[in-house]
Please model this.
Amino acid sequence: MPLGKLNHVAIAVPDLAAAAQLYRDSFGAEVSQPLALPDHGVTVVFVALPNSKIELLEPLGDNSPIAAFLAKNPAGGIHHLCFEVADIFASRDLVVAAGGRVLGNGEPRIGAHGLPVLFLHPKDFYGTLIELEQVAK
Ligand code: CO
Model:
């Protein structure tokens, strides 16, 4: 199960409105409206690129999974990479067979694009949190 396209690079930010405006002002970027994802504890915007996206993330609610990251990196920082896959269960099983760990209960959840996603333990991938997203083919 090879990896597909780089779907997005996610950057955690302390102030989403300011970050969206910075991308508009600095790069003339096309930035989406904020999307609250209470199940994931984040609010996101997407910066459109010709070949991928940048996802800007702000904590939402009391138990945001990015709160600890922002406590360690108060100015913000690169949070995860998202790769597209064709079959998220087959990709998960390959990761697990190779010794990688899936975060949470190991089952896909619906992500920011309405598609199934999984997150892989950053300690198993050189300090990088990896999201796998199943895209329709
Ligand atoms: Co993501």
In short: The CA atoms of residues 21 and 121 lie 31 Å apart.
